[in-house]
From TrEMBL:
Its EC number is 6.1.1.21. One of its GO terms (biological process) is histidyl-tRNA aminoacylation. This is histidine--tRNA ligase. InterPro entries: aa-tRNA-synth_II, aa-tRNA-synth_II/BPL/LPL, Anticodon-bd, Anticodon-bd_dom_sf, His-tRNA-ligase, HisRS-like_core, HisRS/HisZ, HisRS_anticodon. PROSITE patterns: AA_TRNA_LIGASE_II. Belongs to the class-II aminoacyl-tRNA synthetase family. It comes from Galendromus occidentalis (western predatory mite). L-histidine binds at residues 141-143, 168, 184, 188, 336, 340-341. Residues 72-408 form the Aminoacyl-transfer RNA synthetases class-II family profile domain. It catalyses: tRNA(His) + L-histidine + ATP = L-histidyl-tRNA(His) + AMP + diphosphate + H(+). Pfam families: HGTP_anticodon, tRNA-synt_His. Keywords: Aminoacyl-tRNA synthetase, ATP-binding, Ligase, Nucleotide-binding, Protein biosynthesis. GO terms for cellular component: cytosol; mitochondrion. GO terms for molecular function: ATP binding; histidine-tRNA ligase activity; RNA binding.
Length: 511
């Protein structure tokens, strides 16, 4: 632009003196210099954005892009997915067996829906950038969205299950099955029912699933928020500090008492005398006999604690009728730091060698007040449920597979159609089409003239139970060979009876 301006001025100007010409030349040099500087600044702004510009955010000089999954997440290969589907099927069958209906809720909620429901763990919620005027967060669990769903749809009675991913900004421990993105499988009963009947069934379901998965010995720790509140009252904890101290006690399964006491006294301002009294209680665990002992002590005289102890006494009676009492352990150190629990709480742990817990894989409890928070008229709907954190289960099963060197099937194919000669691809297609119409799971090679050894090797690698093998000779005779892939035994069957023969052999084969 500057160049064209100067040239235009040059063509239109007439210089009366040498002085005028000199002044013009000097001005022209300055204009060209300004143009050059402006161009360089423009190029620099494009190539090297200033600090804080979007193009520079998160970038370092000469940083190389690393292709990986985000921290606390992982991909699932076909074998891992096959294992997951088996676990999910066991869980879904158990939920359905107990009469639950399935629902689903969005993976993100309004931020206001989630905040203030998880105590100190609220800092682990993933907040999303403002999108169209709504402040959103990724769901932390499936329980709070369920309570929102009940209030929004004015539902007062339902037995529901839900399986979905949740997100937490936690420090991941991948080898222990702790991730930032993971699945939860929830079973909940909402409605006004008699005490401990739905609560006991939730624990029965957890025991049923773990027994079916053959994960080894497990125990279900139980406690009651009423007992905890009564214990804090007897120990001299101020009412306004109940939730804070409960969150501290909840860390006893991961931290020694000395660290928990330090947090109580130095961070939360509890007196050492009160902390020492709490220590005397949280050391206790046992069965129905412990409940009777506590009822006879000072804590049993506290109204809140007495109601909780009576509830657990009834719970043990029902657990005995269901045949799961051997798994139950009343543990006064179990606190569950989430704010919304109001009654019985429980946590399921696997037990390793030396009776040392190797991880919590399920937890839950009663939350009678959560729905009322979302209801416009503050109407409460009693709820109780249990949530299985299945990533821990997946990790344990994967380790078991690695040790046994077993390989689960990653495909569900029942029969593979093989040709032994060239130009038989259309016949393979006709056979597959017939099998698909009959509801059988079948596949064939996507090569026109595949080698027979390659086809049979694929069957063995994928653990496909049966293979159909044929060439021109079999087609001319109206027969096909049906091969047991594991034993490599072959039988000749009439082409017209193929479907019947396949079903008969599948019925006697473990797929």
């Amino acid at each position: 632009m500057l160049t064209s301006l100067v040239r235009a001025n040059l063509s239109k100007s007439s210089f009366r003196t040498r002085t005028d010409l000199g002044v013009w030349r000097s001005s022209s040099r300055k204009l060209f210099a300004m143009q050059e500087v402006t161009a360089k600044m423009h190029d620099s702004a494009i190539k090297e954005p200033k600090s804080g510009d979007p193009a520079r955010v998160g970038k370092k000089k000469d940083e190389k892009f690393m292709l990986k999954t985000a921290k606390g997440t992982r991909d699932q290969n076909p074998v891992q997915m096959a294992l997951r589907e088996r676990v999910f099927n066991v869980i879904k069958e158990s939920f359905a067996r107990h009469g639950a209906e399935q629902i689903d809720t969005p993976v993100f909620e309004l931020k206001q829906t989630l905040t203030g429901k998880y105590g100190e763990d609220s800092k682990l919620i993933y907040d999303l950038a403002d999108q169209g005027g709504e402040m959103l967060s990724l769901r932390y669990d499936l329980t709070v969205p369920f309570a929102r769903y009940l209030a929004m749809n004015k539902i007062t009675n339902i037995k529901r299950y839900s399986i979905g991913k949740v997100y937490r900004r936690d420090n991941p421990a991948m080898t222990r099955g702790r991730y930032r993105e993971f699945y939860q499988c929830d079973f909940d009963i909402a409605g006004q029912y008699d005490p401990m009947l739905p609560d006991a069934e939730c624990v029965v379901i957890a025991c049923e699933i773990l027994s079916k998965l053959n994960l080894g010995e497990f125990r279900v720790k139980i406690n009651h928020r009423g007992i905890l509140n009564g214990m804090f009252k007897v120990c001299g904890v101020p009412d306004e500090k109940f939730k804070e101290i409960c969150s501290a006690v909840d860390k006893l399964d991961k931290s020694p008492w000395e660290e928990v006491k330090k947090e109580m006294c130095e961070v939360k301002g509890l007196s050492e005398e009160a902390a020492d009294k709490i220590e005397a209680f949280v050391k206790f665990n046992g069965g129905p006999e412990l409940i009777e002992q506590l009822l006879e002590q000072d804590i049993g005289k506290n109204e809140s604690a007495k109601k909780g102890l009576d509830d657990l006494k009834l719970f043990y009676d029902y657990a005995t009728e269901y045949g799961v009492e051997k798994h139950i352990l009343f543990d006064l150190s179990l606190a569950r730091g989430l704010d919304y629990y109001t009654g019985i709480i429980y946590e399921v742990q696997l037990v390793g060698e030396g009776e040392e817990g190797v991880g919590s894989i399920a937890a839950g409890g009663r939350y009678d007040g959560l729905v009322g928070i979302f209801d416009a008229k503050k109407r409460s709907t009693p709820c109780v449920g249990i949530s299985l954190g299945v990533e821990r289960i997946f990790t344990l099963l994967e380790n078991q597979l690695a040790e046994s060197k077993a390989q689960p099937r990653s495909v569900q194919t029942e029969v593979f159609v093989c040709s032994v000669q060239k130009d038989l691809v259309k016949e393979r297609m006709r056979i597959c089409a017939e099998l698909w119409r009959e509801g059988l799971k079948a596949e064939h090679s996507f090569k026109n003239n595949p080698k027979i050894l390659v086809q049979l090797q694929y069957c063995e690698d994928k653990q496909i139970p049966l293979a159909i093998v044929f060439g021109e000779n079999e087609l001319s005779q109206g027969v096909l060979k049906l091969r047991n892939v594991a034993t490599r035994e072959e039988v000749v069957v009439p082409r017209a009876n193929l479907v019947e023969a396949i079903r008969e052999r599948l019925a006697n084969t473990t797929v």
